[in-house]
Specification:
alpha+beta; Umud Fragment, subunit A; 2 domains; 4-stranded antiparallel beta sheet; 3 helices; 10% helix; 22% strand; elongated
Length: 216
């Protein structure tokens, strides 16, 4: 974890800043691919309006009991995943159909289970959507319901738990918080102490110089 609840995180030209202090890249950290331009909007990242994996505008990590106003300026891609991880039922109603919002991507389920059956519960053949679905535009959020209560009857949302930000040291090939968002405190199991095993994927040989090293 590189940022804690209440911290402000920003990425500028691949440099990570937490509360305006640069977070030094770990000793074995690396970049391979060319840097993405600052004005490029990467659609497959968390909070896609914030930029891309190399240039990510400032975001404040949610902390327990934070109060988030709910109005026409709310960043729903920020707050809806929090509501879901906090245990609320979040739904969208369209005509006679009700769609449940989930943080689990159907494509990810398909890769894991290798079965088309996992698509049955999802839009358009089912009743589930992810908050970042292309089927949702800004005008649709007004029909949102939280535990059955219309969003326009709620003036604000109180965050139930602390959230963290994780990033891998292989910054070009790390599926981390830039892609799957904040890490809820309930998902934290402990702190890593040492490297149990490390493999060079080019040669498929163990990297013995890393095995057993203490993680700083």
């Amino acid at each position: 974890m590189i940022a804690l609840p209440g911290d402000t995180l920003e990425i500028k030209s691949r440099k990570v800043f937490v509360n305006n202090v640069e977070f030094t890249l770990p000793e074995n950290g690396k970049y391979i691919a060319p840097e993405l331009p600052e004005d490029f909007k990467q659609r497959d990242i968390f909070l896609r309006t914030h930029g891309n994996k190399d240039n990510f505008s400032a975001v404040v990590l949610p902390k327990k009991e934070d109060i988030i106003p709910l109005n026409d300026k709310t960043d729903w891609l920020y707050v809806v995943p929090l509501m879901i991880m906090d245990g609320h039922e979040v739904t969208l109603e369209s005509g006679s159909r009700t769609y449940e919002l989930t943080n689990i991507d159907q494509n990810d389920l398909y890769r894991r289970k290798e079965s088309m059956e996992v698509f049955e519960d999802y839009y358009p053949s089912g009743n589930k959507l992810t908050p970042w679905s292309t089927a949702i535009n800004d005008d649709i959020w007004q029909y949102l319901k939280i535990d059955g209560t219309p969003i326009n009857e709620l003036g604000s949302y109180v965050v139930k738990q602390n959230y963290y930000w994780a990033m891998g040291d292989n910054r070009d090939d790390s599926l981390d918080s830039r892609y799957w968002g904040f890490v809820p405190e309930c998902n934290l199991l402990g702190s890593a102490l040492f490297v149990y095993f490390s493999l060079d994927l080019d040669s498929w040989m163990p990297r013995l110089d890393r095995v057993g090293t203490v993680i700083k």
